[in-house]
């Protein structure tokens, strides 16, 4: 692109990557595009170049972990997460965590302990409304967040600088934040509510 | 707000989580572990893979619940199981077992030659086969939350899977060029519910996730189905009827992720051992083909 008069008018565009090894990465990408953000699919370490943030999508955490190992992505992802915004939804939250009480590849970027399939099998998957103060404050809205949980994990505990962002009525943690890192048990990419994606973009900028 | 289970969003949503992945047929808990270790995003629990169902003949039914439960206990990834076309009681039993997805499958002997199961009433989601867009939209109309193109199961010959994928994708492309006033005639000609025809045109894709199936035996087959526009791949007999299942399974998983990268495809295709012994579909008598089951 040449530096015509447009470059002065257009802000340098933000570019958010979505890990595209397996899962619903296309849903995240279409959400980001709706918000006017430039996107990239990340399958190999070199795809992390020039990104301002990264989303780890829903999918199967064992599959995503094994493919990340097979293509030498673990270390580049860990390094990226040290100084960039990273958000994991469901399987992505598992992948971001330090501990899931079973042997599978984890990035260990966030100081959270996660329990996989915490609500049971698919017939127990559910939708519910969440009151997420931080999100409502940031977006200047008052309506609850409608969350879709699919064979979802819970965040059993947060340690160190990580803190809970959203809980169910019974107090179980379903979203957490640690600085520029974000984990949700549920799937904002399966709804029409863009507030969580906007919140993440604000962390990335 | 009361939490709601078994919603359309939940049913469709699990299939969205499987996208870009490989669902593998397994007949034992050990197979299931090999599949999970290789990176399968789900397994299909059954007593016999389609190649054996073909070879042995007889009536093919839902698998023994004990076997399905053992497989469910052995892995952390979703477990699917098959019921016969139209056999709503087999489906009720599979739902009671807690399987994550039911495949109302032409691979088993149909229980009803006129009607499929009314799938909306179940909390568990269903996947169904199709050969064309009309068949897919009829199944979605009955409540299927995921579709797979049928191919010709148990043959190791990808030709039918390609035919069905091209037929579906071609019809979706044609819909994009049609005017609103042409959609009712399209619905009539294809035996498809009008509202779903409209939705497909508007979305520019199948309204639910659409995997390829039936004859995929190599990483190249799997990547080809992805390049043709499928969301993921089922591999049935192709893995555990091959010489080195663990290696082939892992290679197909990688091929589905890196389906556009020919150098990675070349790499994962190396030294996989013997593929399954195939059967050439073009030389099969019509009565042996199973893709025609489904109405």
Entry keywords:
heterodimer; A: 205 residues; alpha/beta; 7 helices; 28% helix; globular; B: 295 residues; 8-stranded parallel β-sheet; 9 strands; 13% strand
Description:
Chain A is built from seven helices and eleven strands. Chain A has a single domain (7-204), classed as Rossmann fold. In chain A, the strands form three sheets. In chain A, strands 2-1-3-4-11-10-9 form a seven-stranded mixed beta sheet, sandwiched between helices. The longest helix of chain A is centred in the first third of the chain and has 10 residues, at 25-34. Chain A has helices at 6-9, 25-34, 61-70, 74-83, 91-96, 133-139, 195-204; strands at residues 15-19, 38-42, 53-56, 85-89, 112-115, 126-130, 145-149, 154-158, 163-167, 173-178, 181-184. Chain B is globular, with a radius of gyration of 18 Å. Chain B starts with a strand and ends in a 27-residue tail after the last helix. By secondary structure, chain B is an alpha/beta fold. At the A-B interface, α2, α3 and β6 of A face β1, α1, α2 and α12 of B. β6 of chain A pairs antiparallel with β1 of chain B, so a sheet runs across the interface.
Distance separating the two termini of chain B: 40 Å
Main sheet record of chain B: 8 strands, parallel
Strand order of the largest sheet of chain A: 2-1-3-4-11-10-9
Low-confidence stretches of chain B: none
Radius of gyration of chain A: 17 Å
How many angstroms does the end-to-end distance of chain A come to? Answer: 23 Å
Q: What portion of the residues of chain A fall into strands of 2 or more residues?
A: 25-35%
In total, the number of domains of chain A comes to 1
CATH superfamily descriptor of chain A: Class I glutamine amidotransferase (GATase) domain
User: Could you say which structural class the secondary elements and strand pairing of chain A correspond to?
Assistant: alpha/beta
Which pair has the most extensive contact? A-B, 38 and 43 residues
Order of helices and strands of chain A: HEHEEHHEHEEHEEEEEH
In the CATH classification, which architecture of chain A applies?
Answer: 3-Layer(aba) Sandwich
Could you state the oligomeric state of the chains shown? heterodimer
Quickly give the structural class of chain B.
alpha/beta
The total strand number of chain A stands at: 11
Strand order of the largest sheet of chain B: 8-7-6-5-4-3-2-9
How confident overall, as mean pLDDT of chain B? 96
Shape of chain A: globular
Shape of chain B: globular
